[in-house]
Amino acid sequence: MVGSEKKSLVFAYYVTGHGFGHATRVVEVIRHLIQAGHEVHVVTGAPDYVYTIETQSPGLFIRKVLLDCGAVQADALTVDRLASLEKYIQTAVLPRDSILATEVEWLKSVKADLVISDVVPVACRAAADAGIRAVCCTNFSWDFIYADYVMAAGYHNRSIIWQYFDCLLKPTLLAVPAFRDVIDVPLVVRRLHKTREKVRKELGILDSQKVLIYNFGGQPAGWKLKKEYLPEGWICLVCGSSEDQEMPSNFIKLPKDFYTPDAIAASDVAARILQDTAMGKHHASHGLSGARRLGDAIVLGYQLQRITGKDIVIPEWYSLAQNELSSRTQLPNEEVLDNSSLTRESDYFAILHGDHQGLPDTLGFVKSLAEIQSTCSPQNNNKLQTHEHLAVGAMFNWEKEGLFNFGQNNKKTNNYHNQEEIFVSRAPGRLDVMGGIADYSGSLVLQMPTREACHVAIQRNHPSKHKLWKHAQVRQPKEGPTAVLQIVSFGSELGNRGPTFDMDLSDFVEDGQPITYEKAYNYFARDPAQKWAAYVAGTILVLMTELGIRFEDSISILVSSGVPEGKGVSSSAAIEVATMTAVENHIVGAPCGVMDQMASACGEATKLLAMVCQPAEVLGLVDIPPTIRFWGIDSGIRHSVGGSDYKSVRVGAFMGRKIIKFAASVELHYSLSNISSPQQINGFNPDNADEDGKNLLETEASLDYLCNLSAHRYEASYATRLPESLSGQEFVEKYLDHDDSVTTIDKERNYAVRAPTRHPIYENFRVKAFKALLSAAPSNYQLSALGELMYQCHFSYSACGLGSDGTDRLVNLVQEMQHSKSSESEGGTLFGAKITGGGSGGTVCIIGRNCLRSNEQLLEIRRRYKTATGFSPYVFEGSSPGAAKFGHLKIRLRFSSKE
């Protein structure tokens, strides 16, 4: 610091509350700043002695405040990711506004010239709000760490990372993205007590020997250190080992009170840069420095993830870095790349056909297959950990060098003509944005495929080569092997189901013909724990019945679904579509579509699938404007379309349709006869009825879908004719049947009629209006109108009897957040919410502005809901491609028993 300009400055130094390592490094910088005549205020959660043991000066002030919790760890290297995020939310996210207000006031009161952070992000934002220069002096930033946590904890926690970046772009010295202007300095540790030469002499280390320091804060004792871990001529100094731990001859155990910095080179250059910055001098990093390129790599990484299925939304303040990088993101020799023939390679597999589209769940699924295959190798003696993994290992044929051929025409390649084939397909769940239970009444619906998806791997083998589980082997007839279906479901411990299922495919045949669907239903209903298999095995029967396919080979199927069950996001549809896609491509050779599960099959990322359910006419895809975002938040109340509420509402709607058709038929009869009916429909007098009026009555008398009746005709002519409710017995006596092949009427039950009939008629109108509004100019009016339509839908569900305390609470929380003073002052962030799918629990869909504040408000809603109910809801965020858009992969595993 000699030769620096003499001026007393005030530094506010914020130090993370995670461990003592940061504090001990900061001590040395502080000591040099105070020696130069400056005043340092340390804001920390660490004990005072950590700072005062080296520096006892009137220029040092310590303020005990914990503003950053770091990571929650079981030991030095084991991090509890979920606990870390939860603790940070409680420490810094929820009280952020009050923290900022307090820190801004304090910084002004001490008249700070510079704010330094290691590395407390909120300190940078507070400095910016107070109009004070700020820098970060650290060896890493928590955004790197937390970004990895979010991958494991859930995408909805991404807002925490954006908040970090938002704070870290505030330092005067730094520009976007976070830490883009970085100045490399040598390693900073506490000052030395002994020279390098004296330490080596005391420890008996020769000048010719290389020294490695083995030290980690709070490292566990008992680690097994082996002589062969070090190269020849190296010595390792071990800190913090237990007294009874034995060491090889090339490892030296240091005493407990050994002063670690004496074994490490020290430097004091960081203090000079901080002093110069506080005085207004700018230290810029070299344009090609490693640190600056690391900052660019962060942005580039997020940019490269902006591909179909990833749906990464990058805040506007990243645009500068993106523009700067745009000229450097092309692949080498990009013009000659041919995706149809290119073999892409990774650590686990080579893709010979198709594209994983950067979807982490797909990569994880194929990786799990590779790990299972590798563990099943004769050369590998490791035991699999779960019953499901054991079952898969014993079910799939891993021989023939483990080729996984997912071609769509069953043609085997020349190089691998003897190898078994396995198909992998992927189908997402769906978030019901608008339409819901109006689908069976023919409504327009808008559905968004979720980020969460189901994967299915399927392999077929000749019965003589098929690997069977032992109990399935017992069933094989003596005259020769027969075709068997074996299914494994990953994650069975999360639901009330068995992990495995198997059956002889001959069970699907009776007298040479496929059995009826009713017999199949009874077949799977015998064991509640095995009923889940109907979603998978049922696709086989559908192909046998509808397309005349006969299955002579045995089939092995692995199902792994990331779509949460019972949340109203079509977990069962995802399984059905993924299975059918795999079966069709692998066994039939021509995809034919799955009409009942169109959202999962035909949806695309960042778009809404618009479909008229009469029975399934796809109108096309609707772009979600970049200013708008949809989320789903789970109420924790298990949803089931098989529940009695859903069925009774459906029965009531079909009853209403039958009553409307009957009333129109009666009126048409009297109209054609020029006789006044006892209950004349409004607007139709037989004395002056014209041809158009009679045609309208004729149309309504043959009404195929309720949604083909307009809202104004319903109100004018039929609303008062529908009873609020009606017993099954009364209905059957007058109308015979409700004409719904899916449900049956219980004569002993009373059914609501008017509300279930009204809902799809008005919902169809709401969805049409919603679709039109999405293409309107972005504004608060657009968002408010979209949100109002969703609220109306929600309350209509409740009128039908399909609400629940949990979903109502979540919708009310959104309303409270929307109309809070803070939201109104910001122009609004969340604008509407509604229950989804079959209702009676499940997930609530929320619409809001696509911004950081919306994510923060979702976290607050989640916290309030947990406080009130004890349940921490799962948040669905983002989307991914449907099964058709994803296609299929043709891959070859690297980990085969013969490679």
Automatic annotation (TrEMBL):
InterPro entries associated with the record: GalKase_N, GHMP_kinase_C_sf, GHMP_kinase_L-arabinokinase, GHMP_kinase_N_dom, Ribosomal_Su5_D2-typ_SF, Ribsml_uS5_D2-typ_fold_subgr
Against PANTHER family, the record matches this protein to:
GALACTOKINASE (PTHR38134:SF2), SLR1395 PROTEIN (PTHR38134)
Q: Which organism is it from?
A: Anisodus tanguticus
Which parts of the sequence belong to the Galactokinase N-terminal domain?
Answer: 415-460
What's a single GO MF annotation on this record?
Answer: ATP binding
The record's annotation in Pfam families points to: GalKase_gal_bdg, GHMP_kinases_N, Glyco_trans_1_3
Enumerate the UniProt keywords alphabetically: ATP-binding, Nucleotide-binding
Name-wise, this protein is: L-arabinokinase
Gene3D superfamilies, sorted: 3.30.230.10, GHMP kinase, C-terminal domain, Glycogen Phosphorylase B
The GHMP kinase N-terminal domain covers 535-584
Which GO terms of type biological process are on file? carbohydrate metabolic process
